[in-house]
Predict the 3D structure of the following.
Amino acid sequence: MDVLIVVLQAATVVLVLAVGGYAVALLRRRSSDGAAAELRDRVERLAGQFAESLRASSVDMQDRIGRSSAELKDALATNLAQGRKESAETLQRTTRALEERFERLQKSNEERLGRLQDDNSKKLDQMRAVVEEKLQTTLEARLGQSFRQVSERLEQVHKGLGEMQALAGGVGDLKKVLTNVKTRGTWGEVQLGNLLEQVLTAEQYASNVATRPGSNDRVEYAIRLPGRDEHRDETVWLPIDAKFPTEDYQRLIEAQEAADAVAAEAAGRQLQARIEKSARDIRDKYVAPPHTTDFAVMFLPTEGLYAEVVRRPGLLETLQRECRVVVSGPTTLAALLNSLQMGFRTLAIEQRSSEVWKLLGAVKGEFGKFGEVLDRVHKQLETASRSIDTAARKTRTIERKLRKVEELPADESAGLLGPVEEDGILDGDEAVAGEAGDGAAGER
């Protein structure tokens, strides 16, 4: 309210000043000095009166405004107190209502949560039971399958260990064989004997044969070959001796695996020298024509060793030309023995060809006689056939004549004629057949 009063006073002052200024301006335009002075006096009086009236009005206005402000303050205080009271009561009622609703809602939520928990517990129990059952079934199946697999694997491992132990034993035996010169020679000799036994018969070869007359050197195996021309009944031996230079071959393999060209070349030369020396020994000890063939066979018991010897440039030709020795591996020796077996069969056929020719001649003569016998039997069969045809015609004639005769009952006809002896008929047929057979035998 104080602010409103101040504003009204300021507006009044401004209005008075504006009126005074306007009047002064009018006076300046129209005036003279006397009139202006008089006008100023009048204006000043009017301004003083107006100011006094304004002060009186403002005082009265202030009093009224003060009273109105007090009344307004009292009314506002009363209204505010009443509003606060009503608001408090409304707030209390609202709070109680909210509390009641919250309690009901909480109770309802608790009931729903309880039912939901019960349902969830039941469903969880069911799910747990199903899951446990499936897990138990799956676990038992998986465990059973795993145990079976583990048992099978363990059994396989056990078998593998047994095989590995057997293999280790075999490798140890093989190592002993390959590291001992005498044993290596025995192994090569055994392998050579197995090949000969598979291809040839026991009469076609012999072991530990002294092929050179007057010498105590005996070759491991020799094949019996027939002599030539007038000496066909005499035996000519084909010497076969097994050689196994393992140390030189092993050094060559190790150098090749290590990619050492210098060491490989040196080991190759040593192997070649060992093979050449063995070939010369075979030539000097076992080759003695005409008691033996003019060449011998050196048997190398492994294909790798044979391939390495074949790979050496000119080695095979040198051995065949200078030492009269043919180098052979397991495969090539089998082919050589098969060719010798075919030769033996051809020779046997040649030796028995005369006997076969005589036998064919005898068969030819007997076959001619057999043809003559067949012709006579054919004529006799034709004669018998004509006799049977004649008897059949006579039988039909008799039947035509007997058609008009009344047939007696079977009992009466049997009493008059007696039983028909079918055995006699059969005996007659057999007699005819016997006579034909006796005639054929007599012609033979």
About this structure: The chain is about 80% helix and 5% strand. The chain has a mean pLDDT of 75. Residues 2-90 form one domain. The first strand starts at residue 205 and ends at 209.
